[in-house]
Amino acid sequence: MTVFGLLWALLGCSEEKTVIDLEIVPTRLYFGEVSFDGEMPEEGRASDIVTILNEGQIATSLTLVAYDEDHLCIAGFPDPTVNASLGIIEPGASYVLTIAICDYLPGEATTEVETEVVLLTDGEPPSFSIPIYFTPTRGGTDDTVDSG
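RE: above sequence
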């Protein structure tokens, strides 16, 4: 290592991060109206699959950031309050997440709710966001009814 390289490392400077080429399908989730009548199914009120494909030439690690426990459930990740490693995704490989709508907050009935799931990478960009939209409904659509 050169003196310049050693000085660069000691000062906490680093080289540019590797550019990550991930394709996320779909890029956002639109659930439309989601009924909160009756018992919630094990898989949530409405769910969809998101596929994350590494289209680049370099393996990357992915981390699911603590997600919105007031609205979402993610299959395989029962604790929404902690970041969870999804592991390393090799070039050409993919990871599948099942994201579900599971609850809403008082006052949100019949109003479009926007939330998101965030994934961290070890490259550039350092994170990806998957926006999620839904409108909670109940039989009476009474906004004063407690959530499901």
